[in-house]
Write a structure and sequence with these properties.
Shape: globular
Number of helices: 4
Radius of gyration: 10 Å
Largest sheet: none
Helix content: over 70%
Distance between the termini: 23 Å
Length: 59
C-alpha cells in the first residue's frame, strides 16, 4: 500500500516535469522507477493516474 502511494506521487511529479518538457529528467526517473517497481506496475500506475498521454512516450 505504501509503495503504491509513493509510486503514484512520483508519477504525478513526472507528469509535471513532462509538461515542463524536462525530457531528460523524466526518462532517467522513469528508468529508475521501472527498475524499482517493474515495468508492469509502473505502466498500471501511469494508466490509473490519468497522465498516460503525457507519460506514454517515456515508458
Amino acid at each position: 500500500m505504501y509503495g503504491e502511494d509513493a509510486l503514484s506521487t512520483q508519477i504525478e511529479e513526472l507528469a509535471i516535469y513532462g509538461l515542463m518538457e524536462r525530457n531528460d529528467l523524466v526518462r532517467e526517473r522513469m528508468k529508475f522507477l521501472k527498475k524499482r517497481y517493474g515495468w508492469w506496475q509502473v505502466r498500471e500506475a501511469v494508466l490509473e493516474s490519468g497522465y498516460w498521454s503525457i507519460l506514454q512516450t517515456y515508458l
